[in-house]
Write a structure and sequence with these properties.
Number of strands: 11
Radius of gyration: 19 Å
Number of domains: 1
Helix content: 25-40%
Strand content: 25-35%
Oligomer: single chain
CATH class: Alpha Beta
CATH topology: Rossmann fold
Structural class: alpha/beta
Strand order of the largest sheet: 7-8-9-4-10-11
Bound molecules: adenosine-5'-diphosphate
Length: 294
């Protein structure tokens, strides 16, 4: 939690019309707007915002005109058919797309009111504040302990006492500690699929990110392991902000407070999860959630 986090009113556009992809707002928005005259329930804390975001791979446009707010300490779910740009958008929130050859990102993304694509911004530091968990758990062929300590060592922490403490904290946070506390020296690869995914979540949490991006984190897991990850997401939002891509609409409804629907590279609409699933404003959203396409 930082004082610099923007506190903005939930705009009427957001509440009644959603973030539309065609924002007329200027790309750079003043980070702080006094909300003193608003009742607390009408104000939300913004953690991140994207304005007029477009990403191209070579000459192929993957997403365009994406304008969306990410509210602090909430889970934002991104749904939509395969190939519509959800992962591309997710990766643009921590500059992970920078690692893709021939990519071009235009538009504006802010974290706590500061542009993350500014020329002076170090993407490594952005990724430390905005962590990521992928669809396929990808533990390193190292011990459970070293998997979690990895990011801490990269961040320059070498004192064993601190590493031990932070690794335990991250594993507790990821609801894995009780299952692995007696086998920290065993390979991370010896864990079950669900445990490996929670190990990767622990690895991401160890460096204490403020935002966690999750790209279909449970799609390769069985129902029990999926339920554990979903419970974990619900708990983690007390301490951080989560953006989760899922192709599973029930999962989006279970874990998120807000949902954005992507279709063919555009954000069709975003709003409270209940509203999106019960009273979508756009025909395309309705068709998708009722199974008419996708
Ligand atoms: P989703 O997450 O909704 O399945 P993606 O963001 O993965 O969608 O993909 C959006 C579009 O961008 C797709 O047409 C996909 O083929 C393309 N794309 C994604 N990643 C790359 C990449 N690294 N290089 C080239 N094209 C890509």
């Amino acid at each position: 939690m930082t004082d610099s986090r923007s506190r903005l009113p939930a705009s009427s556009r957001e509440r009644h019309g959603g973030d539309t992809q065609r924002s007329s707002e200027p790309a750079k928005v003043a980070p702080v707007v006094a909300a003193a005259t608003l009742s607390p329930e009408l104000s939300v804390e913004l953690k991140m915002r994207a304005r007029d975001l477009a990403v191209r791979y070579g000459d192929k446009t993957a997403i365009k005109d994406v304008t969306i707010d990410v509210h602090a300490n909430q889970v934002l779910a991104l749904i939509g058919p395969s190939g519509c740009g959800k992962s591309t958008f997710l990766r643009s929130l921590n500059r992970m797309n920078d690692t893709v050859p021939d990519v071009s990102v235009t538009g504006h993304v802010e974290l706590d009111g500061e542009a993350i694509y500014g020329p002076e911004v170090d993407p490594v530091l952005v990724r430390r504040r905005v962590g990521m968990v992928f669809q396929r758990s990808n533990p390193f062929p190292k011990s459970i302990f070293e998997n979690v300590a990895y990011g801490l060592r990269i961040a320059g922490i070498s004192e064993q006492r601190v590493l031990v403490e932070r690794v335990e904290r991250a594993l507790r946070h990821a609801a894995l500690w009780e299952e692995v506390k007696d086998r920290l020296d065993e390979s991370g690869l010896a864990l079950s699929g669900g445990q490996q995914q929670r190990l990767c979540i622990a690895r991401a949490l160890a460096v204490e990110p403020e935002v966690l991006l999750m790209d279909e984190p449970a799609s390769a897991l069985d129902p029990i392991a999926t339920a554990k990850v979903e419970d974990l997401v619900a708990e983690l939002r007390d301490e951080l902000t989560i953006v989760i891509v899922t192709h599973n609409m029930q999962q989006a409804a279970r874990v998120s407070q807000r949902t954005g629907f992507f279709y063919m590279g555009r954000l069709v609409e975003v709003g409270d999860t209940t509203q999106i699933f019960t009273r979508p404003r756009e025909r395309e959203t309705e068709d998708y959630i009722t199974g008419r396409f996708g």
